[in-house]
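Recap from last week: sequence in, structure out.
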Amino acid sequence: MIFVDHSNLFRTLLHRPESRGVATENLLTDAHYREIQKRLCRGCAPSTHRLNGKAAWTFVYIPDQGGIRDPYREDLIRQVRRIDGVFQRGGLVDWDSPTTCRARVRSSKHGGWRDCDYQSKIMVEKMIDVGMATDMVRFACKNLYDLAFVVSQDRDFIPAIRAVQEEGKKVIHAFIRRSALSKTCGQFCDIAPLFR
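Predicted structure tokens:
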């Protein structure tokens, strides 16, 4: 089974030198998701997990609620839902309140707290990481898969990966660039060539 953190994958792709000049709507498309599923599922036993009567191979976590609506995300969600064996899971994406100051964080392990002289308004995402981690662990405990691919760079998934491994499941980090997840999984595969 494949678990994809769409927002994390999108941000990772966005910051690669190879992505300069690539239009946003072409950076990560339904064709990429088809290719990810085709490459990673090759040789895998069919999932016993079923949704709407169909075998569920891939779960793509794309935020679909909140104040941010854009044609790219709406179109991508429609397209991803049409791929056989791929299921989109949603979540909330919105802006922080303009009175929230994200600069009031520890600037470094050596420095103190920075003073907040300005208001910041940045995008926040809720429910995606927790939803993905919950599904990974829940499906493992229900014995719905033996092998999971995690497509994300986010270290927040390390506890979920460890819990899945304790259930006797194998987890492979499918990455654009290696991260702490690669070490935690112990096995990994580079999917960066799919985006060239």
